[in-house]
């Protein structure tokens, strides 16, 4: 059995992986929640992942969402 005092204990540092967004490429509605398909820099497009819109906004990705909406509106006008 090993015993240590509280000043000998060190807090673990949690490293949170961060990814840089390249572009939002799609969106969908699931269970009253809006999701965006996020393509990350240095990743293949096929590896894009669905993220909750609220989480993206909390993380400051509003500009990427706005850019996606502008592009989607341009595509609608072309049709």
Q: SSE layout and pairings?
A:
Elements: E1 21-30, E2 33-40, E3 49-52, H1 53-58, H2 62-78
Antiparallel strand pairs: 1-2, 2-3
Detailed description of the structure:
This protein is an alpha+beta fold and 79 residues long. It is 29% helix and 28% strand. It contains two helices and three strands; from the N terminus they run βββαα. The protein has helices spanning 53-58, 62-78, and strands spanning 21-30, 33-40, 49-52. It is elongated and about 70 Å long. The termini are far apart.
Features:
2 helices; single chain; 3-stranded antiparallel beta sheet; alpha+beta; 79 residues
Q: Choose one word for the global shape.
A: elongated
Oligomer: single chain
Numbering strands along the chain, what is their spatial order in the largest sheet? 1-2-3
- Structural class, from helix and strand content? alpha+beta
Task: Kindly provide the radius of gyration, computed on alpha-carbon positions and rounded to a whole number of angstroms.
Answer: 20 Å
Task: Calculate the mean pLDDT score and round it.
Answer: 86
The number of strands is 3
Main sheet: strands, sense, barrel: 3 strands, antiparallel
Termini gap: 73 Å
N-to-C series of helices and strands: EEEHH
């Amino acid at each position: 059995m090993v015993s240590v005092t509280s000043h000998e204990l060190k807090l673990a540092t949690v490293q949170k992986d961060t990814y840089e967004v390249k572009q939002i490429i799609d969106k969908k509605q699931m269970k009253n929640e809006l999701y965006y398909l996020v393509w990350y820099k240095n990743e293949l497009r096929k590896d894009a992942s669905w993220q909750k819109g609220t989480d993206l906004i909390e993380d400051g990705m509003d500009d990427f969402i706005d850019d996606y909406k502008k592009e989607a509106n341009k595509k609608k006008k072309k049709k």
